[in-house]
Amino acid sequence: MDGLIKLWGDTGIAHFEFPDLVMIAVGCLLLFLAISKKFEPLLLLPIGFGAILANIPNAGFNDEGGMLYFIYHIGIETGVFPLIIFMGVGALTDFGALIANPKTLFLGAAAQFGIFATLFGAILLNYVPGMEFSMTDAAAIAIIGGADGPTAIFLASKLAPELLGAIAVAAYSYMALVPLIQPPIMRALTTPEERQIKMKQLRPVSKKEKIIFPLAVLGMTILFLPAATPLVGMFCLGNLMRESGVVDRLSSTAQNELINIVTIFLGLGVGSKLSAESFLNLETLGILGLGAVAFSIGTASGVIMAKIMNRFSKDPINPLIGAAGVSAVPMAARVANRVGLEANPHNFLLMHAMGPNVAGVLGSAVAAGVLLALVG
Q1: How far is CA 55 from the centre of its chain?
Q2: Fewer CB near the last or first residue (10 Å), C or N of the chain?
Q3: Nearest residue to 351 (alpha-carbon basis) of 61, 170, 182, 99
Q4: Complete DSSP assignment for 133-150
Q5: In this predicted model, what pLDDT tens digit does every residue of 344-365 receive, in sequence order?
Q6: Phi/psi at 285 (5° precision)
Q7: Long-range own/partner contacts, residues 222-230 (CB < 8 A, 24 or more apart)
Q8: How is 153-221 classified by DSSP, letter by letter?
Q9: 369 alpha-carbon distance from chain centroid
Q10: b or e along 213-236 (b: 16 or more beta carbons within 10 Å of the residue's beta carbon)?
């Protein structure tokens, strides 16, 4: 009998508690969204599976010495994984559209307004019973508005590691929902005539310009915002490897094998923070709600800025490309192009939207640097 009792005590059934089952169900939901709906599957699938592993009683994945413990503390707590991801994203990015039309840099900057508006929103949530966010917590939550998963993870690991799971899930969930969230906002803020605006074809960009650009961006960051150089520096390194044309093997590795390997570990590490005790609380609901507000404000800010620029620009600017100022590359640019085609089947905005889209990547990194400098 004692043997049977001991055997029963070693089973998972004997130790499962309701919160564990809830979080395993959350992990399964993320797997469903990744596999069935194809919402950011590269991250949601390992995050969802990591959440399941983290909530298995007596498995020890999250205990000191466990696999998820080491993945989190070596790669995420140190900020290494998000920085490597940023290098890979830089190697995948073509700045040609931004260089050809540098005015779109303002659209990428305007879309970051959602980040700073949400910073104050998080502070105001302290008036809600059961919620208590410090200034560092608020800064980590606000970065969700940039729709940039690696930046959100990097900043949360530095400022509010206890909120990392909720912030990462919110950031990647809203990135995945770009095709659903953005179009209604874009249509509400523009007229049918504005959505039909055709833009002038972009000029060709030389190889020399593409090589100088990442070096110039890094130089400006070093001079004016050193706190942002970890993210911006790795991004520029990846882009320089791509555009120089002399290290194709390194560029290919950064774009493919390296970023893929790190993405697996990054997802598992984030999933390890989706444990019941840290996720199932009122603050998580507040983070998810603020993330939606931040993302919506960022989208609206980009569209409004594009409308303003169109009034004063010699060449017409379609306000839809302003929505691509959030950093969800290239999904936000594709959504802007799709909404433009609905209004005018002969209006192709993809290349024009890529300008503010890649500017948004830089903008979110700069915003993270500003928040680190202010409250870090």
Answers
A1: 25
A2: N
A3: 99
A4: --HHHHHHHHGGGG--HH
A5: 998 899 999 999 999 999 999 9
A6: -60, -40
A7: 225/366, 225/369, 225/370, 225/373, 226/369, 227/369, 227/370, 227/372, 227/373, 227/376, 228/365, 228/366, 228/368, 228/369, 228/370, 228/372, 229/369, 230/79, 230/83, 230/154
A8: HHHHHHH-GGGHHHHHHHHHHHHHTHHHHHHHHHHHHS-HHHHTPPPPPPPP--HHHHHHHHHHHHHHH
A9: 15
A10: bbeebbeebeeebebbebbbbbbb
The mean pLDDT value for 270-299 works out to 85
CA 308 → CA 186, 317, 318, 324, 325, distances in Å? 15, 9, 11, 16, 15
Percent of the chain with pLDDT over 90: 61
Under 8 Å between Cβ of 48 and 30? yes
Confidence of residue 303 (pLDDT cuts 50, 70, 90): very high
**Given a cut of 60, is residue 8 above it in pLDDT?**
no
Contacts of 218 (CB under 8 A, 6+ apart): 229, 232, 233, 236
Confidence at residue 328, expressed as pLDDT on a 0 to 100 scale: 83
Q: How many other C-beta atoms can be found within 10 angstroms of the C-beta atom of residue 209?
A: 15
More confident residue, 218 or 40: 218
Region 20-38: mean pLDDT is: 92
How is residue 76 annotated by DSSP?
I
How is residue 130 written in tokens? 């059961």
3-state secondary structure 197-210: CCCCCCCCCCHHHH
Which token pair is 301? 């800010």
HSE at residue 22, side-chain half, CA atoms within 13 A, is 11
